[in-house]
Amino acid sequence: MKKVHLTVDGAAISVPGGASILQACRAAGKPQPTLCYLETLTPVNTCRVCLVQVTGSRTLVPSCSRIVEEGMEVATDSEPVRHTRKVVFEFLASSVDLSLVDAETREWMDFYDVDPTRYGPAAPAAPAGARDARQAGHHQVPQPGWAETVAQPAKIQDELFVRDYGKCILCYKCVEACGPDAQNTFAIQVAGRGFDARISTEFDVDLTSSACVYCGNCIGVCPTGALIFRSEYELRNAGLWDEEAQTVTRTVCSYCGVGCNLELWVQDNRIVKVTSPMDHAVTAGHLCIKGRFGYQYVQELGGPATTPIDMVLAAGREGGFVEP
Amino acid sequence: MFGAAGGTSSYEEIETTDMIVLWGSNAREAHPIFFHHLLKGVRNGAKMYAVDPRRTTSAQWADVWLGIDVGSDIALANAIGREIIVSELTDGNFIARATKGFEAYAAAVDEWTLERAEEVTGVPARFVENLAHDYATADTAQVCWTLGITEHHNGTDNVLALINLALLTGHVGRYGAGLVPIRGQNNVQGGGDMGALPNKLPGFQDVADDEIRGEFEAAWGATVPADPGLHLSLMFDAMERGEIRSLFVLGENPAQSEADATRTRRLLDGLDFLLVQDIFMTKTAEMADVVLPAAVAWAEGDGTVTSSERRVQRVRRALEPPGEAKDDLEILALLADRLGFSWGMPTAEEIWGELRGLSPMHAGMSYERLDQRGGIQWPCPDLEHPGTQFLHGDLWEDPLPREPVPFIPTEWVPPVDELTDEFPIRLTTGRRLDSYNTGVQSEGFSSPIRVGGIIEVSPEDGAALGLTEGDQVRVSSRRGAIEVPVSFDRSLRPGLAFMAIHHPDEADANLLTIDAWDPLAGTAEFKATAVGIEPVEFSG
Amino acid sequence: MDLHFTSAFPSTPERVAVDRLLGGPPSGWTGGARAAADYHVALGGHHHAVGVRHRLLPALQAVQSAIGWVSPGALNYVAERLSVPPADVYAVASFYALLATEQQSLRMAHVCEDVSCRTRGSLRLLESLAGRDDVVPSPCLGQCDRSPAVLVQRAGEYDASLWNATAEDVAEVLEGATPIDPEPGHYGVPQSELGSDRLRLLRRVGTIDPYSLDEYRATGGYAALTKALTMGPEELIEEVKRAGIRGRGGAAFPVGAKWEAVVGQGPDRMLVCNADEAEPGTFKDRGVMEGDPFSLVEAMTIAGYAIGAGRGFLYIRGEYPRAARHVASALRTATESGLLGDNVLGSGFSFDIEIRMGGGAYICGEETALFNSIEGFRGEPRQKPPYPAEAGLFGLPTAINNVETLINLPLIVLEGGAAYASRGTAASTGIKLFCLSGDVARPGVYEVDFGTTLRQLIDLAGGPLEEIAAILLGGVSGSFVGPDLLDLPLTFEDTHAVGVSLGTAVVMPFGVSTDFDDLALRIAAFFRDESCGQCVPCRVGTVRQEEALHRLIGGVPLNGASSDLGLLAEIDEAMRMGSICGLGHTAGNAIRSAIALGLIGGRP
Ligand SMILES: Cc1cc2nc3c(=O)[nH]c(=O)nc-3n(C[C@H](O)[C@H](O)[C@H](O)COP(=O)(O)O)c2cc1C
Ligand code: SF4
Ligand code: SF4
Ligand code: SF4
Ligand code: FES
Ligand code: FES
């Protein structure tokens, strides 16, 4: 592939043609914030936290999807970039529960001095199903004095995972993983429009009645914890989730002969979550229901749970629910 | 497959191939992540045909589904072969250079006109013709299959019939073209690699070869019998004849997984001594004289497994095994100890080191390299070798550095279990997405999409039998009968019924299946049972 | 594809509605009854699904207009017929305001509450209809010259537009037994009503029978196509370049350059005519399509010939049922007369035009959102590049032009590019349609040369109804300008010089008694409702803008009025710099300008 020459914040760099500006920035030692971008998915450039300034462009340019061109001049820290990134982060932080985003994103938010309170106090959460019922074009009049949010009760419809859309930034990653970029099941899509847009099954039917095959690939790509293992959700609620105390071990799925690699997240000798490495040639991070959730037989208790963690996991498994 | 037993291609290759023939495989459910790669291929423009009696979730992705009658695979393959020959679409150069026996093959398939194929398979002639032409004219094409091909009394012939098609067209030994069997279990391939076959030593080396045997004998300090052992089906025959009196079962559940379960259980019962090493108290373990509790290899132990693309990968210990359960290796070493051999307590890596010394195809796979590269595809003869993405590239070398590959003509034989008025419905078995084998592992988690033990029939048959979904029906075959709830499934046509194999406690399909088995591979004919179905009348 | 359906079954009317559009199911595998022929073979799969996806929106519209909503059973049937996953179908259905995903009344009145109508009685109309569950407020219906405007969606009958509507009118259509279609209509061309003979683009509107090809030909129709076919595509493009014409859809891009870029691409090319016209205050394209549909058909044929396209799509907003009927009839007649279809006028050039209706989404006027809408996806704009000329509709090189842009072509062909360019100014050549509404005596579409001033135009429309406080120029994505700019010549360059834009040529004067607070809030609400929701700056920014504006106007600032003003400016800046498409880029324009002019609460 022919090399393309460009500058990033004044420094010259050359990258293979077809690379994105983001890749060029990374190659230049300048990582950028991203939320909706993932190496394994088609860029949707919707979150807009990776925007950069390209000389000659009237508006800012998403670095994750824009392909480099010869002679491009890219600025990652100009005034419009700083301002827009800050406000975009504020828009998200003031409307979505970002408590589970990764540390890197949090550092970027600190870097841009993000202050979600500037937009007013967060409006009360919508009742279950209310946001899902909104019809396109029907105006939602602002509640005086409040900043509207997507807060709503979590959807818990089975024993494997939880959809907590109060944490959803609408990054489309789950839609792509469930859809054309990996699983091709298309159980969920973005429905509705504007601020009322949301991830939904057809008519918001329960996941159990939808096309969902519980591969959990949506969980695997969700950057905000909106989609989460039931086990993790319950352990967090019970205050027992402890990443410091966890080990992550790479091994191979015990089911079919495809040979997917698994990362077993283990806390107190219990598997609490399963992922697959994104750079693994077989899976690109994706699994099927057996690889993702089929681990439980190795920790069948064969008796009543005695440790706190086992009690929470067992409660989750019986469809029970530990109050936070 | 003409040489080492493994799929010729890597998953990656199907993403850019031009044509995919998925034959006797519901990979969408049985091998979901392989199917991800396949769908990338489809999205990149590959044309897809599916050959399967059922229009499975996999077949629904195909441009064309050919709904053959159960057990007519060879008829279809031979007709495709003939059509390719008479339409002069063969790769004559490849045939001349790299194969032998073409004339005999051509003569053997000559009776398989499209019309004859239509009669036997049920598939309209022009679709057979289309498949033949598309396959032959594609730049690269892959034929992928799983148990729908192999779980027949003539499973080996089925595979040979497909290989012949690849030889006709040169669809092997090139990137993107190949023959791709996908393994049902996480280490079937690895088991074969390690010599868990009656006639092979590790690395698919022949037990009959004195020189090779000699190397193993030198390394092990023991004599290796030159005669091949028995495969599973022959073992049960030997039990029947009283020749096998004791059995050591490691990590298998034959009491539930074998065809004709009544006979299997009788034979296991009749043994003098049954030793079972398993992670579960399986049905087989319950029958055992001694049970050795094993640790879960993939999460509580260390070692390697080999995937369907010949990729050797590491499994690692993430959990401490419960109670007295021990790693398989440890159990075997302790057992050796009691039997008077001092093996010490070798680590998995040490055992692997021994294998690398004895199996040339594994020689270059140090643990260090396996870790670094996230697995290596065999053969990998030395520490510099990157592993082998696809096999049989040497078939395209000139001059040919190996023996030409033979065409092996195959003859179509109908399924052993005949359809009659009493047993008019063809029952076939298979897997579901969220379940696995007899369910011992997959029952451990509560799947929201689990369908329990049921029999599925076509909506048309359901209506003809006066059934509604959920009704209890009696399913009988020449060997036994069971009662299960019925459900309707549009993937089935009239005369075809389906049961999954995962719920032997609720719906034991293997009480119905026939144990006619393939003489070479020892695989039983799970896929073709003749049954009768009738509503269960409730009294009162 | 392995689709999964809920247990909801379609009713017979739902099936019939879909089958009428798509034809009966071709096999038992795609929604039909199973027969022996299906037992051993099925065609389908991914490639088939990709090929039919573009019929999704029409299929949903068929269901909506048959039964009044998209029910779960109907949704399943559409999904099965077209091999689209049900969640995807729902995603598309729930995107459009004219498709309901919950059951509603069989007749629904959409009463315009937008900028023009709300100052001319629609708020009162809505009030008097309050409490009815078959009345919903609507964004601009493209009839701002005859406010208050109403669109009635009627299951089983065609939709009806009402204007100058009273509560009685609306109730009558909602309840009445007689299907009403107010034809022959009102085309809103006051110049022609006043007997002007200087009109060129509008000369036939309201004066000929829009169904009559003979009348169209008798007034010079199809002379241009005949001539164009003898000129050849290259010369045609040269002539268009010589004419210097720039796009009339809002972005003012030179037409010749756009076409050249398309022609420079691969051989399989597309023409799209953008008739979505949903920018509040805009109604010029409707008048042309209703009154002179053949002129658009002829113009599209010329454009298709010039760029070497075999197919054209005409995307008409869903709120224009009458325009769609008239153009559809013209297409049929033209095809029957050899003016369209195979071998146009024996030239060897073949060209087909397909009409697609919008579903009630302003964003679908944005060109790439429009492509997605036609292709059967949610009307979400695409990030550019790639531009439509490289990868447009169905990924093919595409020329997309506004209705008004295209209907200039016959003039250019007949009189030559140089003559065309002799009107207007050097940078804004030719003639232009303006949409006048608001506080003017004779609202309507006006045709003038570029360079006409605001004052001249308003005078042409009978003058203001009261002293002008501000003029909304270019639509709600444009700006308010003060009366000090009344002598501004209306050209691309003069407006640009004062930091505003011609936009869609909306000129909406508002008198001193206008409640600008109310207008600003309405504009903020409009953008919030019409944002596709894809990108964060616009999805959240339009909400935060509306909230801040409410606080500012309501006099309950968060941390003092200046903080809300500052916040509004920051939000505006982030939307303008950070959004994917023009909707977000311009969502703060009108409010920013209103604040700057001191029109709304919390003066600077
Ligand atoms: C939100 C939005 C809405 C638009 N709506 C329309 C429209 O209804 N009609 C139109 O012709 N152009 C509309 N445009 C402009 C189109 O994207 C495009 O520029 C135009 O169709 C090109 O045609 P032209 O070059 O002939 O003007 C819209 C743009 C945006 C950003
Ligand atoms: S649920 Fe998660 S992955 Fe899906 S759109 Fe929301 S934030 Fe993104
Ligand atoms: S995750 Fe699924 S596809 Fe992958 S190896 Fe396990 S069972 Fe097979
Ligand atoms: S700017 Fe608004 S309308 Fe445009 S893509 Fe973004 S969210 Fe959608
Ligand atoms: S990461 Fe680039 S727009 Fe989201
Ligand atoms: S029709 Fe009401 S404002 Fe345009």
Give your account of this protein's structure:
The complex is a heterotrimer of chains A (324), B (540) and C (604). Chain A is an alpha+beta fold and 324 residues long. Among the domains of chain A are: 120 residues, Ubiquitin-like (UB roll) (Roll); 84 residues, ADC-like domains (N-terminal domain of TfIIb), CATH 2.20.25.90. In chain A, 21% of the residues lie in helices and 17% in strands. Chain A contains eight helices and 13 strands. Chain A has a five-stranded mixed beta sheet with strand order 2-1-5-3-4, sandwiched between helices. Chain A has a three-stranded antiparallel beta sheet with strand order 6-7-10. In chain A, helix 6 crosses helix 8. The N and C termini of chain A lie far apart (54 Å). The relative contact order of chain A is 0.10. The radius of gyration of chain B is 24 Å and the shape is globular. In chain B, strands 16-20-17-19-18-21 form a six-stranded mixed β-barrel. Chain B folds into four domains: 171 residues, Dimethylsulfoxide Reductase, domain 2, CATH 3.40.228.10; 118 residues, 3-Layer(aba) Sandwich (Rossmann fold); 62 residues, Dimethylsulfoxide Reductase, domain 2 (3-Layer(aba) Sandwich), CATH 3.40.228; 111 residues, Barwin-like endoglucanases. Helix content of chain B is 32%, strand content 17%. By secondary structure, chain B is of the alpha/beta class. Chain C has 604 residues and is an alpha/beta fold. Chain C folds into five domains: 89 residues, no CATH class; 68 residues, Glutaredoxin (3-Layer(aba) Sandwich); 232 residues, Rossmann fold (3-Layer(aba) Sandwich), CATH 3.40.50; 81 residues, Ubiquitin-like (UB roll); 81 residues, de novo design (two linked rop proteins) (Up-down Bundle). Helix content of chain C is 42%, strand content 12%. Chain C starts with 11 loop residues before the first helix and ends in an 8-residue tail after the last helix. The model of chain C has no long low-confidence stretch (mean pLDDT 95). Chains A and C meet through helix 2 and strand 8 of A and helix 5, strand 3, helix 23, helix 24 and helix 25 of C. The site of one FE2/S2 (inorganic) cluster has 12 residues of chain A, from loops.
